[in-house]
Specification:
- The chain is elongated and about 95 Å long.
- The chain has a domain of 70 residues: Nucleotidyltransferase, domain 5, CATH 3.30.420.
- 36% of the residues lie in helices and 14% in strands.
- It contains three helices and five strands; from the N terminus they run αβββαβαβ.
- The chain has 134 residues and is of the alpha/beta class.
């Protein structure tokens, strides 16, 4: 009598190593994400006690105390920021812009950026401030 060999492989897979890796990655991202969103160092002015519900997907433009313009964290000339904003609007026609001006920034620099954005057709341009807790 001949014995027949079974060629059945054991197809069990242990999920424990994968769960360990995913948990570690989750912890790393939870720790590093707040550090990545710090932005440039500006002191926002205080204005009112109510907050506008903002769009998390808005373009962030900042003006520091020396009148320098920033798109996210990258320092650029005003006209270059406007060009890049126009390019981003091509992908999302309802794109909103949040303009952050330092308390000690020149009012003209902030309004110059806002005026340029309005001139090229951006309707959703808002000014970012801190809540007044008093």
């Amino acid at each position: 009598m001949s014995r027949r060999r079974s060629n059945v492989n054991d197809a069990n897979m242990s999920l424990t190593p994968m769960i360990d890796i995913m948990t570690t990655l989750l912890a790393v991202f939870m720790v590093t994400t707040p550090l990545m969103t710090s932005g440039i160092d500006i002191e926002l002015p205080r204005a009112g006690r109510s907050a506008m519900t903002g769009n998390d997907h808005a373009i962030q433009i900042s003006v520091d105390a020396h009148g320098n313009y920033y798109l996210s964290e990258q320092r650029l000339p005003r006209d270059e920021i406007v060009k890049r904003a126009i390019a981003m609007r091509g992908e999302n026609p309802n794109l909103a812009i949040t303009l952050s001006g330092d308390t000690h920034a020149d009012y003209g620099a902030v309004m110059s950026m806002m005026g340029k954005l309005k001139d090229v057709g951006f309707q959703r341009v808002g000014l970012r401030t801190k809540l007044d807790n008093k």
